[in-house]
Amino acid sequence: MDAHGRILAALDHEEPDRVPTFVQHLEPPFIKAYDEQVELKSDYGYKGGFDLMVATELGLDSKWNHGAGFGPRSYKDMPEVPPDILREATRGLENYYIGSDGSLHARNSAGEGWYQDGLLHAPELLKAWVSFIKSFVPSDESYLKYLEEDVWKAGLKNDIVFIPTAGGPVYTTWSSIGLKRFAYMTRKHLPLVKSLINAWKEKTIEIHTLLFEHGMDIVFTCDDHAFKGHQIFRPELWDELVLPVYTEIAANAHKHGAKYCVHTDGNLHDEIAGLIKARVDGVDPLEYEAGNRLAPLKEQFGTRICFIGNVPSSDVLSFGTVDDTIRITKRQILEAGEGGGFISAPGSDVLGTVRPENLQAWIAAVKKFGRYPLDKSKLG
After folding, report:
1. pTM of the model
2. What is the pLDDT of residue 102?
3. Is the model's pLDDT at 111 over the cut of 80?
4. 3-class secondary structure for 323-351?
5. What's the structural domain count of the chain?
6. Closest of 273, 277, 291, 378 to residue 329, by C-alpha
7. CATH number for the domain harbouring residue 248
8. Which residue has the higher pLDDT, 42 or 32?
């Protein structure tokens, strides 16, 4: 079975030939450490994308590919933030920029930015940004063709699936308002917040549809909305605000014969039932360090959604030994692998602290011990 078929089988809750492997993002310090230890055998025919070469060399079945998206026709059209709101939000920040979504980011000397807050603190700003978002345009045809030919199809030739990521309506909604203001805005101006998340949803569906029309049949939204211990949204608000959005995005994917996966860091236990109700196909990364555990998740939700991730990235893969890595990999296959519906992956990005030998040991362990039918005597 090839990697594409293996991933699709897992997402369909079937047992492929073995448990598939997946990573989100290979951070540059990891790539540098790996490159110092291993000489790449080939460029594998990719046009650019050193991370694609490393992922292929590692022998992974799949990896994210960031790229496709949408944005404003012109930043000159971006609504103006009132001076009093901007002054309050930027207090103490010397360098900052405002994202096209209305979020505020601090900028360091290298030009890199980190999320600080949202600026859509008033109903007038929400209305203005909804109109602005509706004018956004997707990636152009030449770039979509590049993704199709030089990333997706090139990856399949090398037996690896580079899964596109596009959109993040839930994250973009709360982050553009800001956590400090989000509860207030949902209590006082819920219809406007709904208009905002629906504007992002429509743009997400638009770009997903273009990806599907270019032959890509799996897509992720990177949509963080959980803390280490619990969700950002109270359950009734999640049902009213988030559930309809994911339901429509999943329905659009299924209409095109494609699969839809949701990424959010944090503890996801309380929202798995909602993701199943929305008919989301897979959930990632089930961050181990945030308390997600595969055995109770598998017991409670069975094969109604594909579990992706859970290998501790900032713990075992970074600071454990090869033996530690093999041990937890075998345990997770035992806990979640039976019946399919499981893709083994780190519980976050492949961080710069991850030891290359541990990542290689994880991949090798999955290939050795994750073959179906599972031999539980070797996994115990």
Report:
1. 0.96
2. 96
3. no
4. HHHHHHHHHHHHHHCCCCCEEEEECCCEC
5. 1
6. 378
7. 3.20.20.210
8. 32
